[in-house]
């Protein structure tokens, strides 16, 4: 079996992650266009098509989130591989330290023993810090959840951003919009 180059594999993963990020950035441009299109459809009082486009917009935003999440996971895997490579190097170093300790013990050279232990403590501390950092990264997870009212909320947000009064065909959204605005007005008064 050939030697595995973890550093090279880590670089490939990082490159693939960057490609996914670039895809997500391209989709963000599509999302901006869709937001403008939804605003135009609201102005034209075309609720059905506005709702369809808003659902498409939500799906694209979900896809963007997934791409960024996957890119982040690839970055984490690449970092793990880099740390794995460092751990393999550390194992070689420990083997060397063990040999040096045995030699120093055979001659009872306390200065050599102290230097060996000091150098090993530095290596061990760096390894512990990297391991703790990886544990922290792996413990953090992101999840994107959507409820059934996401498209309606998005239509209201776009209408508010564009200062568009929702037409009568969006009446149920207007009621929800006014109900959401009431707590904000009460907070402004206080």
Automatic annotation (TrEMBL):
GO terms for biological process: vacuolar transport. It holds the Pfam family Snf7. Residues 17-51 form a coiled coil. Keywords: Coiled coil. InterPro entries: Snf7_fam. This is Uncharacterized protein. It comes from Giardia intestinalis (strain P15).
